[in-house]
Design a protein that fits this description.
With 277 residues, this protein is mostly helical. 75% of the residues lie in helices and 0% in strands. α2 (18-32) packs across α12 (195-223). The protein starts with a helix and ends in a 17-residue tail after the last helix. Residues 1-7 have low confidence and may be disordered.
Length: 277
């Protein structure tokens, strides 16, 4: 990308319905190559879990690398639009695509989420922190406490600016040659300008990721024999959750293209988006 193009980062302001379009289009991309996408997702989480279990450092290194691996999903989606199916090799594109700008995004993620969790103690006196650290076992009575519920809501509000700043940042780094600071600032401005579709997107995530699985679990618990209920639940929900999570990863690319390249035809000859490595 030329220096003049990099100097003028513009973005579109979309209406609320685009939040639903992001998920619809992402699922369509997933379904077209569902085996490849699910395999890529499986490898990603095996890598993260393998890193996470390393004593002392794993819990910090794994989130640091999430923006780097996010580029892998962006690269796979970008390639699919141009006729190349997703492949495991795409997952590692971030390690040779402006890694120096991607790693600071991981630092922001770790610092932001840590700050949001610590902030919950201002509301509940540290109950959420005790649960997350493993010193207190969560139960129904604890989760029903008003101060605990308020603390979780407050923590989510504290985390929201960080999540919005990181929403488009990996794509801006890899596709538009942004540095970390500029990518975070541009992502935050674009997300705030598009709060309507992002709100719809978030509500749909809550419905498909929380309400629907909870309703299915309750229905299975009510109808299935007690001994078999857990097995049935796992066989029913695990594939669903795999498709759900894969759709979320692909929607990062779909939403980025919709906001930052609104006039481009996906995969068409006029597409000017740089190749992700």
């Amino acid at each position: 990308m030329s220096a003049s193009a990099a100097a003028t980062l513009t973005f579109a302001r979309r209406n609320a319905s685009h939040g639903a379009h992001w998920l619809r289009d992402a699922f369509a991309m997933l379904w077209a190559h569902r085996v490849r996408w699910l395999l890529l997702l499986l490898v990603y989480y095996v890598i993260l879990v393998s890193i996470d279990v390393v004593p002392w450092v794993g819990a910090f290194v794994a989130p640091l690398l999430k923006p780097v691996f996010a580029v892998g999903f962006l690269a796979a989606a970008w390639s699919q639009e141009r006729g190349e199916p997703p492949a495991i090799a795409h997952l590692f594109r971030g390690f040779r695509a402006n890694l120096a700008a991607l790693l600071p995004l991981g630092v922001v993620l770790v610092a932001g989420m840590t700050g949001a969790v610590v902030a919950t103690s201002w509301v509940d006196g540290g109950k959420v922190l005790e649960v997350l650290s493993g010193t207190t076992r969560p139960d129904e009575a604890l989760l029903r406490r008003g101060d605990v519920q308020g603390a979780m809501l407050f923590g989510a509000l504290c985390a929201l600016p960080v999540l919005l700043a990181l929403w488009f940042a990996p794509a801006l780094v890899v596709f538009q040659n942004c540095g970390a600071v500029r990518a975070l600032g541009t992502s935050l401005r674009a997300a705030m300008a598009n709060w309507r579709p992002i709100l719809v997107y978030g509500l749909l995530l809550f419905f498909y990721g929380v309400v629907l699985p909870a309703a299915a679990a309750a229905l299975i618990a009510a109808l299935a024999p007690r001994d078999a209920g857990y097995t049935i639940l796992m066989f029913a929900l695990l594939p669903y959750l795999a498709f759900f999570v894969a759709t979320l990863h692909i929607s990062d690319y779909v939403s980025y293209r919709d906001i930052f390249h609104p006039d481009e035809r996906p995969g068409g000859p006029e597409t000017e988006t740089d190749s992700p490595g």
